[in-house]
Amino acid sequence: GQLFRLEDYRPSDYLIPQIHLTFRLARDTTTVVADLTVERRAGTEACAPLVLDGDGLKLKRIELDGYGNPAHEATSGKLVLTNLPEARSFRLLIETELDPDRNKALMGLYRSNGVYCTQCEPEGFRRITYFLDRPDILSVYHVRIEAAKAEAPLLLSNGNPVAGGELGDGWHFAEWHDPHPKPSYLFALVAGDLGCLRDSFTTMSGRTVELAIHVEHGKEKLAAYAMDALKRSMKWDEDAFGREYDLDVFNIVAVSDFNMGAMENKGLNIFNDKYVLADEATATDTDFANIEAIIAHEYFHNWTGNRITCRDWFQLCLKEGLTVFRDHEFSADQRSRGVKRIAEVRTLRALQFPEDQGPLAHPVRPRRYREINNFYTATVYEKGSEVVRMLRTILGAETFRSGMELYFERHDGQACTIEDFLKVFEDASGRDLSQFGLWYNQSGTPNLTIKASYEAGTLTLDIEQSVPPTPSESRKRAMHIPLAFGLIGSDGKETGFTAAEGATVENGVIHVRKRSHKLRFHGVPERPVLSLNRGFSAPVTLAIEQRPEDLAFLVGHDSDPFGRWQAFNTLLTDALIAGYRLLLGGKEANYQKDIAKLAGRIATDATLEPAYRALALTLPSEADIARDIGRDIDPDAVLAARSTLSAFIAAANREPFGKLYEELEDRGPFRPDAASAGRRALRNVVLGYLARLEGGADIAERHYRTATNMTDLIAGLGTLAHEHAGSPRTDAALADFAARHATMPLAMDKWFQIQSTTPGTKALETVRALMRHPAFHIDNPNRVRALLGTFSTGNQTGFHRADGTAYAFFADALLEIDGGNPQLSARLATAFRSWRSLEPARQEKARQALVSIAGANSVSVDLRDIVERSLA
Ligand code: HT7
Ligand code: ZN
After folding, report:
1. 419-463 residue pLDDT tens
2. In the prediction, which pLDDT does 67 show?
3. Which ligand is nearest to the Cα of residue 295, counting in written order?
4. How far is CA 214 from CA 93, 161, 174, 259, 287, in A?
C-alpha cells in the first residue's frame, strides 16, 4: 500500500462544483452516468491532466460536452484525462457499470437484504464513478434514480425531493437535489421496498422538517425510540449549540449489512439496524442508550462534519472528535451526567488506552497512513473528544461557546483543518493554544506522577509529567494538562487555600505545563485528602500513593461522582492485582474485609443513583486488570483473581444483596429511561454476585425464566452461561433462547456473544461450532462481530488459551473474512494489538499467528497494514 503523508497535501488542480448523477438500478447491471461540471482552479495550467480516482470500476463511456471523446487512459483505479479544453470550465460525462450484488466489502453501492444502499466514507464514491474523491472537493449534487417499481418503490438520495414519476415497463424514477455543496463521501442513495415511520419537527425558526425512518416492513414500531431520540437531538442542537437543521426532509434508513454503526450522509443517514430497531423484547438498555447516542451523533454531524467538513482525511478528528464530544454532552443532558462520565471513561480506558500504549498508537491527528479505513479509531474518536473537553475546561464554558460560534460562522461551507479549529478558540479567548495543540499531534497517554506532602499549613505537590515513546515518536514534548482537583478536609468538605505557587491554579484546575512542577498550596488548615483529575479532566494515567483509608474516605465524601467511583475502582484494582500476584505465586488470593463492606455500603446507599451504584459495583473487567498489570500477563490468573474477589464480596453481602435484588424487581410497565435502566442495571449486577453463592444457578435461571424484557433475559442467560457453563440447565436455557429468537438476527447476536465470551478453553470449540450455525453468516458484520469480535476482545481466557490454538483459528478466520470485507478483517485483527504484554509463551504464539497472516497469499492492504504495524 502507498504511504500517504500529511505534509504532501496539495489542493487539487480542478474543482467539480456540480454533479448530475443518473442511476439505473438493475440486478445484473447497474449503470451510473455522472455529468460533471469541471473547473480548472485559478493558477492551474491548461495542459494539466485531470486525474480522477476509481476503484474496481468498469468504464462504459466518456464524453467531453461539445468536444467528443477526450484523450484518456482508464484503469479500474484511475482515469487520467489529457489535452483538456482551454476553457476554464467544461462538462464531462462518465458512464460506469456496477454489480451491487457482488459487492461484499460494503463500500460503494451494494445490496443488503434486497435494498440498494451506499457507503461512501471515506473512499467509497470512487467505487461508483470516477471522481476527485477527496473531502476538499465540494459539489452540488442532483441525483436521478430509476428502478423497477416492484423491486424499489422507495428511491432516496441526499437533499430534498424535486421530481418523480412513472417510466413505463413497471419502472419509475425520483430526482433529488441537495443545495448544500458537499464532499463525495457524504453522497448516499437508497432504493428498495421498506416500511416507514414518519414524524415531523418544527425548527427554531419555525420551518417544518419531515422526518422518516425506513426499516424492513413490519418493523416500523421498532423505530419509535430512534425517532424520539432524533427529535430530542434536533432540539438539543438548537438549544446547546444554536444549530438549526437546513433541509425540508431528514431520512434515516436501517440496513442489516453495515461495517460500522451509522453514516451521516447529508439528509439521508444510513444506519446499522442494530442502532435503530428497539423495543423491550428485542433490545437491552445498553442498546437503547447506544441508539440514542448514535442517532444524536449522526444528526450532529450535519453541522460538525457536513456543513464544515475535513480538508483531508488526516483531519478526521476535526469532525469525529468534536461530534463525539457533542453526543457525549447530549447524553449527559438526557441522562445522568455523573454516570455518563464514568461510562465514558471506562470506554476510553478499555478501548483507547491500549491503542495508545501499543504498536498501533497514533496521534489524534495522524501524519501517516496506508489505509485510512484503519484510522477510524478510539484515538481519533474518543481521545479526540477528550481533547475538545479539555479545551472547554481550559477556556471555560462561555469562551468555549463563543469559539464554537466563531467556528460555525467563519468556516460554514468549508473543508477545514485542526489549525482552523484551534485558531477560532485562540481568537475567541486571546490565548496561545500552541502547546495545547500537541494533544492532536503527539501520541501516547501522558503519565503524571504526583507526590504529596503536608507541613504546617502548606501542601506540596511534586508533579512530574512524562509521555511514553510510541511508534515513530521517541522524544516527546511537555503537554498542557488541565488537572481538576479538590482538597477535602476531615469533615468531608472542601478545604480552602490562600495562595498557590509553582503552577497556574484557577477555577479548581491545576495547569500542568512543564515536565515538573513543585506546586505549593499555602494556608491549608489540615492535611487534606486529595481528589485529583476530577471528572477525568485529562486523559492521562496518574501515579500517586494514596492510603487505602484515604481512598475509602473519598468513596464516601468526594463531591465529584467520578472521583468517588475512581477511588473505589482503585481499591478494587489494587486488591485484584495483589490477588493475582498471590495466585501466580501458587498461593490463595485473600482480600480485606473492608472492601466487601464498602461494596455493601455502596450497594445499599439509597442516596446514590442506582445506575451509579451498578457502575461502582462492577468489578474491573479482565482486560482492565490486565491493562493495569501491564506486562507478562497470565489471563488465567487474572480470571481467577476476579472470580475470587467477586465471590468474596458476594459471600460477605449475601443478605443485603439478596434483599436489594428483591426490592429492585420492576413490576410496572417497561420504560427505557435512564432511571429505570439504572435500577435494572443494579439488580443485574447484584444478580452476578448472588450467582456465585450456593443456589446461585437457581436464581440466575429464575431470572431468565421470569424476565419480561431483553435486558433481564440477557442478564439471566449470561450469568447462567458464564457461571454455570456446560450444565444441563444452562444448555436448556440457551436452547430456549435460540428457539424463541431464531428469526431475529439481532437477538441471535446476543446469543452468539454470550457463548463466545464464556470463560475458559472450551470457548474455542463452541465458537468453531457456532460458525456453522444457520444463523451465522460470515458476510454479515454484525454476526461476525458478535461471534468472532467478542471472542477475541471479550474472552481473555478463551482467546489467549495457553496453547495458542485460538490465535491460529482466529488468523484463519481473518483471512477468510478478508476475501470479502477487508475493512472488517482489519478491524478484527486489532484484537492482537496488546500481544507484547502477554507472558512470553503466549507472546510467541500470538506473534506466529500474526506472521502467518502476513505470509498468506492474498492479504488486503487493510489487513496487512494492521498486521505489519502490530509486528513492527
Ligand atoms: N462517519 C462515519 C464513519 C465511517 C463509516 C460508517 C459506516 C460504514 C463505514 C464507515 N467508514 C467510516 C460514522 C460516524 O463516525 O459517524
Ligand atoms: Zn462520526
Report:
1. 999 999 999 999 999 999 999 999 999 999 999 999 999 999 999
2. 82
3. 1
4. 32, 16, 17, 19, 19
* CA-based nearest residue to 571, from 542, 541, 591, 601: 591
Q: What are the residue ranges of helices labelled H in 724-839?
A: 728-741, 745-756, 763-770, 781-784, 790-794, 796-799, 805-820, 822-829
> 578 with 630: CB under 8 angstroms?
no
Q: Is 121 in the pocket of ligand 1 (CB under 6 A)?
A: yes
Domains of the chain in sequence order:
1-193 (2.60.40.1730), 447-546 (2.60.40.1840), 597-871 (1.25.50.10)
Cα distance between residue 282 and residue 222, in whole Å = 9
Closest CA to 100 of 152, 138, 63: 152
Q: What is the DSSP letter of 478?
A: P
Task: Confirm if 529 and 475 have CB atoms less than 8 A apart.
Answer: no
**Predicted local confidence at residue 145, as pLDDT:** 98
Of 298, 609, 622, 723, catalytic: 298
pLDDT at 276: 98
Q: Are 784 and 754 in contact (CB under 8 A)?
A: no
Q: What would the grid cell of residue 371 be?
A: 489505509
Specify whether 121 is catalytic. no
Beta strands in 222-333 (DSSP E): 249-255, 262-263, 268-272, 309-310
Which grid coordinates belong to 727? 450444565
Residues 202 and 199: their CA atoms lie apart, in Å, by: 10
Number of H helices, E strands in the chain: 30, 32
pLDDT tens figures, 72-110: 999 889 999 999 999 999 999 999 999 999 999 999 999
What is residue 65's predicted lDDT score, i.e. its pLDDT?
86
φ/ψ of 546, rounded to 5, equals: -125, 135
Instruction: From 107, 123, 258, 263, give the residue whose CB has the most ligand 1 atoms within 8 Å, as the site to mutate.
Output: 263
**Under-70 pLDDT residues of the chain:** none
Residue nearest to atom 15 of ligand 1 (CA): 320
Say if CB 710 and CB 747 are below 8 A apart. yes
Write the DSSP assignment of 291-315 as a string of letters.
HHHHHHHHHHTTTBTTTBEESSGGG
Provide the pLDDT for residue 255. Answer: 98
Give CA–CA dist 354/83, Å, rounded: 52
**Whole-angstrom Cα distance, residue 781 to residue 789?**
10
Report the run of H or E that residue 320 belongs to, with start and end: helix 316-334
**Please, what's the b/e burial string for 134-148 (b: 16 or more CB within 10 A of its CB; e: otherwise)?**
bbbbbbbbbbbbbbb
Cβ–Cβ < 8 Å for 109, 189: yes
Amino acid residing at 823: Q
| Ligand 1 neighbourhood includes 298 CB (under 6 angstroms) | yes
**Is the CB of 371 within 6 Å of ligand 1?**
no
CB atoms under 10 Å from CB of 75, counted, come to 10
**Which atom of ligand 1 is found nearest the CA of 259?**
8
Q: What's the CA-to-centroid distance between 90 and ligand 2, angstroms?
A: 35
Specify the DSSP class assigned to residue 781. Answer: H
b/e map 96-116, b = 16+ CB within 10 Å = bebebeebbbbbbbbbbeebb
**Measured CA distances, 207 to 19, 201, 247, 249, 350 (Å):** 28, 8, 9, 11, 43
Query: What's the CA gap between 429 and 158, in Å, rounded?
Result: 37
Q: Does the complex come out with an ipTM higher than 0.90? A: yes
CB distance 376 to ligand 1 below 6 Å: yes
Q: How many CA atoms lie within 13 A of 596 on its CB side?
A: 19
* Among 190, 260, 269, 381, residue to substitute to test ligand 1 (most atoms within 8 Å of Cβ): 260
pLDDT at position 100 = 97
For 53, the grid coordinates are: 480516482
267: left (phi over 0), alpha (psi -120 to 50) or beta: left
